[in-house]
Structure prediction request, 181 residues.
Amino acid sequence: MKKVMVGLVLLLAVASASAALAADVALTSVGQSPDAVMVRVVMKKLKVEADYDALMKPEALGKQKVLVAVVGGSSKGLGAAGINADQEKARAVSLLEAAKKKGMKVLVMHVGGEGRRGTLTDLFINAAVPFGERLILVKGGNNDGLFTKLAKKGVPITEVETVATVQAPLEQALKDWKVIQ
Prediction:
């Protein structure tokens, strides 16, 4: 019985220690579209663990090095989350501000292309892009130059053909920011 207890205590200690270790990447949606889930799949292909929460709040940020904010508005997603567009925008801005204060790198992604653009998504683009230190977009999403206009001077904007081709620039950004080798 004593051996079982010692084993359980050791197992609990190991489980607690590994649970306390945060990933190097925090991943969230800005607009509650399913696009952040697609980016999460790409990260898994890169073998990058991300602390993912579609409704991530500033207090969820720990020792991560990078915040990936995937922008795409979805009225259905907002409804499912029980929030409106203004609440989502406020949440996103407070999270992005907190990430900057912590010295985290911010990658803003828009993988929905032209089809995911519109008034709702543009609200979130306007809120998130000024925080981005890099932008990765699916072609068509910047046809009107909105991302270019909102990005701070010198911020690299990478456009790819499809969501399936975001892997290479995402990998490069994470390498440059010392998340992966």
Notes: Strands lie at 25-30, 50-52, 66-71, 105-110, 134-138, 157-160. The chain is about 45% helix and 15% strand. The domain at 22-176 is CATH 3.40.50 (Rossmann fold).
